[in-house]
Design brief:
Length: 110
């Protein structure tokens, strides 16, 4: 059976472009960490883009399939990514955040 992919994270600054392209829905914690790490915003993006990235990263990590990674490392990384998402969320007017939460093809939040 083929893997089902998430729908990815759309770029709020460039409609029709991916901020983070779809990743396999059944990816492990380490696979998701590596996938997002290769796509980390470098600073030229808007706050809305940073929020979309870190919020999507947080949700993807929270729903990741367990793997053999160290429990402390997983907790530390998730805490760091959650703090980044919270910081960008607090810095955005509410209207700019709508539509920034990634979903799987089945419609469930990742």
């Amino acid at each position: 059976m083929a893997d089902t992919n998430t729908t990815g994270i759309s770029d709020p600054d460039r409609p029709g472009q991916w901020l983070v392209p779809p990743w396999p829905e059944n990816a492990t914690f380490c696979e998701i960490a590596g996938y997002f790490s290769e796509r980390t915003p470098l600073g030229g993006e808007s706050r809305a883009s940073h929020y979309a990235f870190y919020h999507g990263f947080q949700k993807a990590l929270e729903s990741a399939r367990p793997d053999q990674s160290d429990d402390h490392w997983r907790a530390d990384l998730l805490r760091c990514i959650t703090q980044c998402a919270d910081n960008y969320r607090r810095s955005q007017p509410l209207g700019q955040l709508r539509g920034q939460v990634p979903h799987t093809e089945s419609g469930a939040t990742r």
